[in-house]
Batch of 2 targets.
Target 1
Amino acid sequence: MRVSNVTVRKRLMLALFVGFLTFLIIDVRLGYVQFVLGDMLTDKAKGSWSRNIPFEPERGKIVDRNGTALATNISAPTVYVIPRQIKDPAATAEKLASVLNMSKETAYREITKRASSVRIKEGRKISHQKAKEIRALGLEGVYIGEDSKRHYPNGSYLSHVLGFTGVDNQGLMGLEQYYDKELSGERGAVKFYANAKGERMNDMADDYESPTKGLDLKLTIDSKIQTIVERELDIADAKYNPDGIVAIAMNPNNGEILAMSSRPTFDPANFRNVSQEVYNRNLPVWSTYEPGSTFKIITLAAALNEGKVNLEEEHFHDSGSVQVAGARLKCWKRGGHGDQTFLEVVENSCNPGFVELGERLGKEKLFKYIKDFGFGQKTGIDLQGEGTGILFNLNRVGPVEQATTAFGQGVSVTPIQQITAVSAAINGGILYKPYIAKELIDPVTKEVVMRNTPVVKRRVITEKTSKEIREALESVVAKGSGGKAFIEGYRVGGKTGTAQKAQNGRYLENNFIVSFMGFAPADDPQIVIYVAVDNPKGVTAFGGTVSAPIVGAIMKDSLSAMGVQPRKGQIEKEIKWPDVPLVKLPDFVGMSKSELQEQLINLSIDASGEGDIVVRQSPEPGTKVKEGSKVRLYFGKGE
């Protein structure tokens, strides 16, 4: 059948139209892919071609309140391999093994793994010298990534507070763990491109994504005070060989922790060298024990605030013990203190006298104040592992439990609870939440991202009561059991504590926790210090003989470091055996040698210079020194 020319032309036109439409669709599709999807597809392709060499972020520094570094970072490169780029695995493994001190078999196994990239375990956080040696080998497929490790420049200094990090720079304990998210930062990387065979595509430039540094953490800790505390704890540790020591220094007016330490201690960089019990327990916030007589401050505060006692006018007779519901509760002094004012009850830390105060209060009032001062609950300090302590259930408190609680026996508290409560007792009556982190700071912009400020929990006692407590506790140091904490020229208040340790429901023989709580200046407290020594050896264990001198030494140097000047109004210290009396130095300047011989003062003279007249002396006139102390006199001819 013959087809007409018209039909042929129609068919050709249709074929042409279909072809044109097909090519149009293809062109539109190609244009869409090229111009609309091009960037996305290129990014996906680059993603499949890319290989990352990680650059770990620099972890935020931890510094004290004055910017002194407590935890920093040091560069520690890490070895990575791209298995597909390695041409001769056996030779590469042998060379890597020789530098990284690993077996050739292990190295071979690592570099032949079926993975796009492998981080060599033995090549993690190596020295720069080793990194240089590996680079010098020029091994294909072997790369050095930037990494760092935590550095604690002061060793065991503040170790339990700072904590430590793991191999991946993750916080594992202490502030390193509590603020891990803020300190960590974000990882960066160098990206290079490789084909399906893993071969590097040299025609494509590497990409660099910089890591983001972690935030810096500024603490309330004052390194000057912390150094003093560490020094005195080292001395006490060597002197008494105790089972443990706890020390905290706090600003009583806002809850800032100025220093915190304990023994036994450890080096955060080598925490694996000590048992978990050592590094995992921050004793100032974790440990719980009977407080002993330092707890009497709370009973005293409650009695004064409720108007149950007049310290100077009321008297109490101590026979050496008191009978409560058939139980005989003894005073620490055999035979008792006899007749005394209630101020002397406080000075002498007389147990029967505090039993009397507890009875006047009644159990409801006594335990209300104990709880208001924060006992039986966490303080909320920004450190992990805080204990809560143990209080009697009020329904189970009988006359004996009430009596023993009044002088600090039968209850269990933490050191941080005690210093926080006593701060409230002496600062005017305000209970603050303690804290140790002051600010989080952006290391690049120096902008403060987070700032902790004082948190008032509640008013516990009146300002008038707080003033009476300060005066009573100053008297304890000047005239009572806290005499070893006395500092000439400074008004120091404080209270001793001696608590027998218990185990399995029974008290241990000759095993005590001895403590002292001190503060200064007594009329305007700027610092409160608590020290507890657990089972000191080779000494008669009392808070007044063991812990008070430690607090006194810390207090003296800390007040000087803080710029707190001596002030008038100090209560004259009552001299007790074996204390050596103090004498006030006269003005020797202008005296002749013959006039010096007429001075009836027991002093040792260290003379220098030529002439018969004193032209200068050291220490200065008016300074109080112990009898027999050496005084340097400089002689000249005078005028």
Note: The two ends are 153 Å apart (CA to CA).
Target 2
Amino acid sequence: MSYFSTRALHLFPSYALKPEKEKELDIFLQFLDRSEVGDLLISDDLNWNKSSGGRPNINIYSLFATILYSFTFDKGTLRDISSKCEYDLRYMYLMNGVTPSFKTIGNFINHFILPNIDAIFTCLTKKMIEELDINTDTVYIDGTKIEADANKYKFVWKPTTFHKRLCTKIRNLLELIKLADDLPDDEIFSSEIIADKLSVFGSMIEDDDKVKKKQYDSLFKYLEKAIEYEEKEEICGPDRNSYYKTDHDATAMTLKTDYYSGLGSSMHAAYNVQIVVANSLIVERIVSQNRNDISDFINVIETFYKSFGRYPESVCADAGYGSFQNYRYLDKKRINSYVKSQSWQGNISGRNPDSYRVLEDGSLICLNGNYGYKVEIENRHPKKRDSVFYRVNGCNDCLFNTYCKRWQKIKDEDYKIFEVDVYGSKLKRRTEENLLSKEGIIKRVNRSIQVEGAFGSIKYNLGYNRFRRTNLDKVKLEFTLTILGYNFRKFFKYIKGENIKTEWRPSKDIKEEIFKKPSAKRLRNKILKRKTKSENQKAKDNYKYKSNRKRGGKT
């Protein structure tokens, strides 16, 4: 059905749009009709735009197209859209001459777009993939942190430690007044239990008993503090340790660039965003409260599966996603892994290599080429469930001895014990082989071009480095509309005949890479230099401490 491209006729049009621009906008509206996104603009509130005189009723399809266009080429703020509908010929054409207020635009976004944002994004993206002939077999994943619209100085840490100490004080007080018989053994117990004990204790107090009255007052203050801690812990939830008073869903994170002072050392209210890119088009996105990318990796791929009904054939991502858990997930879903491990840079350069590698047959080989074998150690078990112990002999004659045993207290033993997750290490080795292959090199280059380029365009070209809305749902809405705007910029370039696919292919045959062979002498000197530096730093700190003591200054 033609929701968008059917235009009302004006007897006296007040604008004269250029024919090429009018044709471009018509193609845009026809695309929205072909995508059938209009069927998703549903709201339970049928009276959201009921006219009682004054401004006429708003065509929701024209308004939706105008909002998308604003996020494509402009800021996408409510007042910006409202004002441009009055003087910008493109907006006047899309709105058919109607000028909505910023309040109407905000109500429309909250009633129609917000509840259906996931379905709208999937609908438009799938249609764009189809018409632009985008291949989604290989996808590239990356994430960044974007600052929230919250006061960075008004944040709250999760008070779990203080809550435990408070419960200990309450337990001691209840034992003193002999009301602690049926208390739970948990470190933290609920305020309801404290309130019941307070009620029982209040009935036991006589008018002239000053000691018990003082104890009652103390228990009452403890109850107030316990309720406060419970409220803060409920806002934080089980998976994070902080929130901000002006946006409870924002989490304290360290950003790469400080919004206020240009430093990257202080905490800010922020959200973590992840995008999935295929052939320069952003095909999936999530917004989370996690402070690292590893935790969002499985979630973003499952979101891709939910939208497209299948998993990609290959996934390429940087070292921020490299973990055994993620490698296991990719292997289980039969997805080719091109995800760098966290030790990738150290291995490829030879400056900080892994101390061992697990081969395909399950055997272990150390840096010196010595093979290890599985052992069981009496009265000691591996820290991880899927790990086993390997022992490598001949360490005293090994040139890498200083490097391999840099964290051990006892360094003169002629052997080294490794705790190894065999299956995870095998998957890591296969991933490294994929990354070192010719196809792996091409994918690594394309990842830096496509997904880094997408974030560069959004954050720096458009200056989008801070959310304008608060709470998780509205931030997700805003980011999704921003992503759709990025995709539609690609679509308008396609309309003009420009090439939007930026996949890099080498002009000539390239060679497979290998890990650089580490230098035992360089690694040994590096460890000795670090040790000497550490000892010198301790001596300097000790000297400063004694000097301050003599001068009577701070220690």
Note: DSSP finds 17 helices and 13 strands in the chain.
